[in-house]
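User: Predict the structure for this protein chain, please.
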Amino acid sequence: MQRNWSTNVISGIGLLLVATMFCGPAKADEKTAALYKQKCAACHGADGKGETPTGKAMKLRSFGDPEVAKMSDDELAGAIEKGKGKMPAYGKSLKPDEIKAMVAYVRSLAK
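Assistant: Here is the predicted structure, written as structure tokens:
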């Protein structure tokens, strides 16, 4: 009886961990994608290549560009938080965890 209960508890915990892996990040990714679309895509493009009229006028690099790829996560977060060049600062409108998620999202667009 004790072994059966332990097996059920361990199985239940495992199931919760697997469910969290598949459900948790998806919502965060959707939220970050929506924030990117709202705040970034007009210049950087939906795909992060910077091939929008504004992006071309500002000569934005693709997120896949080697110069962008070699930037650290802290450097990217700083650019999002404080702005860079003509890019506005988002430190007052985005929470630190949203900025961190945005860095990960930008990295995903570079692939």
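The mean pLDDT is 85.
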